[in-house]
Design brief:
22% of the residues lie in helices and 21% in strands. The two termini are 49 Å apart. The chain is of the alpha/beta class. It is globular and about 80 Å long. The chain folds into 3 domains: 289 residues, Glycoside hydrolase, family 3, N-terminal domain (TIM Barrel), CATH 3.20.20; 206 residues, Rossmann fold (3-Layer(aba) Sandwich), CATH 3.40.50; 131 residues, Sandwich (Immunoglobulin-like), CATH 2.60.40. The structure holds ligand L2SNVXEC. The site of ligand L2SNVXEC has 10 residues, from loops. Its EC number is 3.2.1.21.
Length: 792
């Protein structure tokens, strides 16, 4: 077996050699420029990377870059078997790797294969299962969806979807949500909870699974990924950041290739995964699609290159279910665990015995198998699962008081889009409730497997990222209960029949109309929608329903439950529509959260985590039948609207309140120095990317008459010296709860990465010199304060 250097490799920085070819060096013993120092020599690792390793000569110029057959050999060039870099023990992973190394030394090759191979579809208690290794006390690992709680748990909390959590812009609620999900998973004996979701990011507003994640801004999604991971793992379970990467649509997701340019990859799609890795996420799920023609689950560049080397990911990569295509290619490409271990028919098995044979024949090295198993074991030790972990029991009642988080996220994620003054409600004499979405699914709240229908009130999308509701408080239930205490009469039409609304809605002081839009995972088709939405219109003739009610009532409030943006122009053209309440996806606390906002016990504080356009074509991206070249590059969602100078209907970050906030006194200070990131790699990337290099503050005052919370948002524009970039990019936010007349300080701490762009030539993050535009405001188009940060 080859000797390995016990160093962790830094990402490469490409430097131009005397011959003009791009070459590279990096890692421990690297000066941060083109040079290896202190007895280290620059050795080529593969097509993407080189590293400074202990050697006889100090290298002074990248032009002398050589390949080497040193005993401290690096991963081989693409084409040959991949040789892993071991061990990776840095930071909080060090102790876990030490334990994993001890364990590995005691087990057989078959044991290692068992650790990294699923037992097959439907062959265990969880959606994914491996085999135990008794000699080291290692259990049958239980992997279970998903991003909003324990799928198929019989008495678990159905937490709010990621997109609702994002709409709160409340880091504490997001973290608590993760912590509670982790606690429930552990209570059920689930070792790996398959979330959070950072891909799809949401470049397509129609994308079927966007609602599982945190929206199309990488910074907001990155924060969501980081704190959810931290919350989940603080409860003693392993998180799984998925789906890595470029799985932006459901249509043809398992045949198409996503061709993403290097800068776009780094600045958009990789960004949230980097944050999850920085938070020590235990596992990453590779996606169904190809990337630049190579299956994501065997892509050396994105798995070994980007994820493991550049981001310093210490955990393991598992396949999405049935996303593995080859035995050897996946192993050498960087995949570490196959799930579920067979195809859905149980006929095709690519690891298990096949992995054993491939190792025996030398197609896959023993060191690679050790690396896979060690990564899995290290994640198990890292999360403390080697002691006192409960037995698998998906029937355990683990809900505790977690519904408080569901209600808080459902409520604080409600975005008030329009209000002429009808809200908050003031004890109306008669309320009309209209629409099938006002009430529970009459066939039963969990009657559709994996929520694969849009019948009754909508609380989440459909697919593997769902959980069964333990109960469901529909809007009509909660409004009726509240109305009773106020002496309000409620009339209800629980269908979408436009012809009969008059008898319910005319004469009511206010008429609430409930409309929806749904989407989900492509293995289920609902009402002709095969995952991705076919359009951005409300379902069930929602526009016509609102129109019919507005014909007979002057105080119409439209409540929207939706997986993502819908086009509201038809509704907004109706003068009798006095308010639009964007209630998102509230899960089981739907009605309670809505009542909190409608009646003003809580002022709305949610802000849109995506843009609502005037027309679907305004987004500038579309679902592809074949491959997707990502030709829009960096310009998705508000980045596109800003660049193309298109007015959205409601911009990213927008949301009204029952009070007013004034902004004053911007300060901006920075210690940032221009140039590339340097230093060793820690989980997430080069260490200095996470250094705080600038602070921006603003004073926010509640100048209205009721208490409320404001999400102050920080956007930056790169200086002219940087390559073309979006006019503004979110780089900070903070939510302040303020009593009437109270003042608070919004403080934004910017990391070096927040001021950087990805330099393709240098293969590094670079802080450009010059003047950065700094804007703080209530949305991406309501920028109240502006200033600059100057970097020399
Ligand atoms: O659940 C683990 C990951 O699985 C992926 O989704 C799969 C989903 O979990 C599974 O229920 C579904 O199975 C169906 C299968 O596709 C279909 O061919 C067969 O006829 O019926 C099966 C049962 O309904 O397959 C999904 C993949 O196609 C998710 O992408 C991932 O996020 C999950 O974590």
């Amino acid at each position: 077996m080859q000797l390995r250097v016990a160093v962790f490799l830094a990402a490469a920085t490409l430097v131009q050699s005397d011959q003009g070819a791009w070459q590279q060096c990096g890692g421990i013993g690297w000066s941060g420029d083109t040079t290896c120092v202190g007895g280290y020599a620059c050795v080529k690792s593969n097509d993407y990377y080189s590293q400074c390793i202990p050697g006889s000569q100090e290298q002074t110029s990248a032009s002398t870059l050589t390949t080497s057959t040193s005993s401290a050999a690096a991963p081989s060039d693409t084409g040959g078997p991949f040789e892993p870099d071991v061990p990776h023990a840095v930071g909080s992973w060090a102790a876990a790797y030490s334990q994993a190394s001890t364990a590995i030394a005691k087990i057989s090759q078959q044991d290692k294969v068992n650790i990294v191979s699923g037992v097959g579809w439907n062959k265990g208690p969880c959606v994914g299962n491996t085999s135990p290794v008794g000699s080291i006390g290692y259990p049958q690992l239980c992997l279970q969806d998903g991003p909003l709680g324990v799928r198929y748990g019989s008495s678990v909390t159905a937490f709010t979807p990621g997109i609702q959590a994002a709409a709160t812009w409340d880091v504490d609620l997001m973290r608590q949500r993760g912590q509670y999900m982790g606690a429930e998973a552990k209570g059920c004996g689930v070792h790996v909870l398959l979330g959070p979701v950072g891909g799809p990011l949401g470049k397509l507003p129609q994308g079927g699974r966007n609602w599982e994640g945190f929206g199309p801004d990488p910074y907001l999604t990155g924060v969501g990924m980081a704190v959810t991971t931290e919350g989940m793992q603080s409860s003693g379970i392993q998180a799984c950041a998925k789906h890595y990467i470029g799985n932006e649509q459901e249509l043809n997701r398992d045949s198409m290739t996503s061709n993403i340019d290097d800068r776009t990859m780094h600045e958009l799609y990789l960004w949230p995964f980097a944050d999850a890795v920085h938070s020590n996420v235990a596992s990453v799920m590779c996606s169904y699609n190809k990337l630049n023609g190579t299956w994501a689950c065997e892509d050396d560049k994105v798995l070994n290159g980007l994820l493991k080397k550049e981001l310093g990911f210490q955990g393991y990569v598992m396949s999405d279910w049935n996303a593995q295509h080859t035995t050897t290619g996946s192993a050498n490409g960087g995949m570490d665990m196959t799930m579920p271990g067979s195809d859905y028919n149980g006929r095709t098995v690519l690891w298990g015995p096949q992995l054993n044979s491939a190792v025996n024949s030398g197609q896959i090295s023993k060191a690679r198998l050790d690396d896979m198993a060690k990564r899995v074991l290290a994640a198990w030790y890292l999360t403390g699962q080697d002691s006192g972990f409960p037995a698998i029991n998906l029937k355990a009642n683990v809900q505790g008081n977690h519904k408080d988080n569901v209600r808080a996220v459902a409520r604080d994620g409600i975005v008030l889009l329009k209000n002429t003054g009808v809200l908050p409600l003031k004890k109306p004499g008669k309320i009309a409730l209209i629409g099938s979405a006002a009430v529970k699914n009459p066939k039963g709240i969990n009657s559709c497997t994996d929520r694969g229908c849009n019948t009754g009130a909508l609380g989440m999308g459909w697919g593997s990222g769902t959980a069964d509701y333990p109960y469901f408080i529909a809007p009509a239930d909660a409004i009726k209960a509240r109305a009773q205490t106020d002496g309000t009469t409620v009339s209800l039409q629980d269908n979408d029949n436009t012809g009969s609304v008059s008898s319910t809605a005319s004469g009511a002081d206010v008429a609430l109309v409930f409309i929806t839009s749904d989407s989900g995972e492509g293995y289920i088709t609902v009402e002709g929608v095969a995952g991705d939405r076919n359009n951005l219109d409300p379902w069930h003739s929602g526009n016509e329903l609102v129109q019919a009610v507005a014909n007979v009532n002057k105080n119409v409030i439209v409540v929207v439950h939706s997986v993502g943006p819908i086009i509201l122009e038809t509704i907004l053209a109706l003068p009798n529509v006095q308010a639009i309440v964007w209630a998102g996806l509230p899960s089981s606390e739907s009605g309670n959260a809505l009542v909190d906002i409608l009646y003003g016990s809580t002022s709305p504080s949610g802000k849109l985590p995506y843009t609502i356009a005037k027309a679907a074509g305004d987004y500038g991206t579309s679902q592809q039948r074949g491959d997707d070249n990502y030709s829009e590059g960096l310009y998705i969602d508000y980045r596109h609207f800003d660049k193309a100078n298109i007015s959205p209907r409601y911009e990213f970050g927008f949301g009204l309140s029952y009070t007013n906030f004034t902004y004053s006194s911007l300060t901006a200070t920075s210690t940032a120095i221009s140039g590339p990131a340097t230093g060793s790699v820690i989980p997430g990337g080069r260490a200095d990317l996470f250094d705080a290099v600038a602070t921006v503050t603003a004073t926010i005052t509640n100048s209205g008459s009721v208490k409320g919370a404001e999400v102050a948002q920080l956007y930056i524009g790169l200086p002219a010296s940087a390559p073309a970039a979006p006019p503004k990019q979110l780089r900070g936010f903070t939510k302040l709860n303020l009593a009437p007349g109270a003042t608070g300080t919004a403080t934004f701490n910017l990391r070096r990465k927040d001021l950087s762009y990805w330099d393709v030539g240098r293969q590094n993050w670079v802080v450009p010199s010059g003047s950065f535009a700094v804007s703080v405001g209530a949305s991406s188009r309501d920028l109240r304060l502006t200033g600059t940060i100057t970097v020399a």
